[in-house]
Design brief:
Largest sheet: 2 strands, antiparallel
Low-confidence stretches: none
Number of domains: 1
Mean pLDDT: 83
Strand content: 5-15%
Radius of gyration: 12 Å
Number of helices: 2
Structural class: alpha+beta
Order of helices and strands: EHHE
Number of strands: 2
Length: about 80
């Protein structure tokens, strides 16, 4: 099974791993949500953001699910 590759930078070079959109990248917030997403269905719905989302988040839980999914691509050639 191919592992997804994560594209963590936008074309401008700015990091886009700020998955909750609060303007900051934190290990126990954004990083934890990305790791949870990689575990799949075990962290569906609000389980993904539980105790990890910032109080200043600009994205909803559903938007965070979509945002993280959009960051990954599967390389089918390698």
């Amino acid at each position: 099974m191919k592992r997804p590759k994560l594209n963590l930078k936008q074309k401008s070079g700015r990091k886009k791993i700020d998955v909750d959109g609060d303007g900051e990248v934190t290990a126990l917030g954004d990083g934890l949500m990305v790791i949870r997403k990689l575990f799949g269905a075990g962290f569906d719905g609000v389980k993904l953001t539980d105790k990890a989302i910032s109080s200043n988040a600009t994205r909803t839980t559903d938007e965070i699910h979509d945002y993280i999914a959009a960051m990954s691509t599967v390389d089918t050639i390698a």
